[in-house]
Amino acid sequence: MLKISINKIAEDLDNILDGFIKFFNVKTYEIIEINNDDLSLVETDYNLSDYADCLQKEILLAEDVLYSDYYITLPTSYDINEYKIMQKFTSLLPDFLVDVFQSAIRRKGAFRNFKQLLYKHHLEEKWYRFKKDELKKIAINWCIINNINYTIEEE
Q1: Which long-range contacts (CB under 8 A, 24 or more apart) does 48-54 make?
Q2: If 143 and its partner were Cys, which of 22, 25, 45, 148 is the partner (CB 3.0–4.6 Å)?
Q3: Per-residue pLDDT averaged across 86-97, rounded?
Q4: Contact 41, 62 (CB under 8 A)
Q5: Exposure of 81 by Cβ count < 10 A (0-12 exposed, 13-18 middle, 19+ buried)?
Q6: Whole-angstrom distance, CA of residue 81 vs CA of residue 22
Q7: Residue 60 contacts by C-beta under 8 Å, 6 or more apart in sequence?
Q8: What does the pLDDT read at residue 137?
Q9: Average pLDDT rounded to a whole number, residues 42-71
Q10: Helix axes 124-145, 110-120, angle to 10 degrees
Q11: pTM
Q12: Is residue 2 a part of any domain in this protein?
């Protein structure tokens, strides 16, 4: 029986690029990333020979993702909502930092403000551990909802 590592999914969820969607192949248990433009293209009446050889492989993969039953979309950055993860993290900080962090993430440049405060208060390592744990929870929930077999590794 195939199983996917929760750490692998969490790592992929932490590395979602703008303009891309990650998919899970239920037959091979592999995660792939497809450009939104390629997905849009295959929904049109396109001619594969109009594209360079290096792009044809990506276009064919996008077509396979779109028209087969073997792929499930992984949670998107919208589903993950890193801002909510930041809010949750700040609520767990010592009282004297809660207001400082919460005020910073409510202002313009919330992510930049948050990162600056992490470095100022030497909380980077604690944040990255917390974020990784939250992404693992999202990954486990996604696996359960989609009936995907998974493993949880000790770190």
Answers
A1: none
A2: 148
A3: 96
A4: yes
A5: middle
A6: 16
A7: 48
A8: 97
A9: 92
A10: 130
A11: 0.90
A12: no
Per the structure block, which two tokens stand in for 89? 């993290």
Q: Residue 20 forms beta bridges with which residues? A: 35
SS3 state at 99? helix
The residue out of 73, 99, 118 marking a domain boundary is: 73
CA atoms of 5 and 137, how far apart (whole Å):
13
- What is the predicted pLDDT for the residue at 155? 66
What total of structural domains would you count in the chain?
2
* Domain containing residue 115: 79-151
As a whole number, the mean pLDDT across the chain is: 95
Same domain, 137 and 102: yes
Tally the residues of the chain: 155
Predicted confidence (pLDDT) at residue 70 exceeds the cutoff of 70: yes
- Residue 54 is predicted with a pLDDT of 87
- The label of the residue with tokens 């900080």 reads 93
The dihedral over CA atoms of 117, 123, 128, 131, expressed in degrees to the nearest 10, equals -70
Res 124 pLDDT > 70: yes
**Res. 143: pLDDT tops 70:** yes
Residue-level pLDDT at 154: 75
Same domain as 61, residue 92: no
How far is residue 15's CA from residue 70's CA, in Å, rounded to a whole number? Answer: 22
